[in-house]
User: Fold DUF1985 domain-containing protein from Cuscuta epithymum.
Amino acid sequence: MYMNEFFCVIRRKKHELMVPVESHFPAQYSLCSSFGKYKNLLAAIPASEQQNFKNLPWGHLAETPELQFSGQIVHMLLLRMVRRQPVDELWFSIRGKIFKFTFQDFCAITHLPAYTTRPRFVKNSDKGSVAKLFFKRQKRVTYEELKETMAALNPKRRVDSLAVVKLASLFVVDCMLLARNHDTKINANHLDWVEDFENFKKYPWALESYNLMVSNMKSLMRDQPEKYEAAVANKPKYKNCKFTVWALPHVLQVWAYEKIPGLAPRCGTKFKSEEASLFN
Assistant:
């Protein structure tokens, strides 16, 4: 009897929530990723290069389905995140069962290759480079500047078609997969790496996106509910925490629809799928 009680305590500790149920709090979420928001990505690419772009590891992301981001679902999951879990996974305790979101799930849903090896990039001449053609050699480009440049691109403009494909690829990587706050600068290395396009295609962008999303999600619940309670104490009219989610949280949303029984009907979503994927 005592042994059974001991193991029950161990299991409870193992599945202890980061935020206790009695301390759950309301929150609003804002999205950084341009996934699903940019309908004319392919149209901005010269017709002669559109099929080549589609054939890239991330090319299918240019033809995104309608999927509204749900902060409600993400918050429901994060409030049920367990305290003890691997650093590179997201574990949730729901109705006494542990659900594990992994890199394999991320790749299966996004259809991105599960590369893990980082290639060694070769520095190329900047003749016709993305930085030179679109950013006046500027190397410190913000996410917002990259989005504005892509949106303003005229397919009739006489410019090297491969440079346009590289720019569109940079947009997908930085504004969809690795999206952060709009005024944040993108990794300056990316402007150099995209010139070595063969290695750029082999880079583990899915892994980078996944790791960024996982670390961001965990950081949102760190030191909660203490932060929320302190805010309420200082400002009695304070109602909701306001969180910004990075990378591609839509993937976690699709995974939840598929894995957690009864979630989709409860959240009023119209998403229907026999298989967890963004591209059925």
Observations:
- Strands lie at 27-31, 90-94, 97-101, 241-245.
- The chain has one domain: 24-266.
- The longest strand covers residues 27-31.
- Residues 161-177 form the longest helix (17 residues).
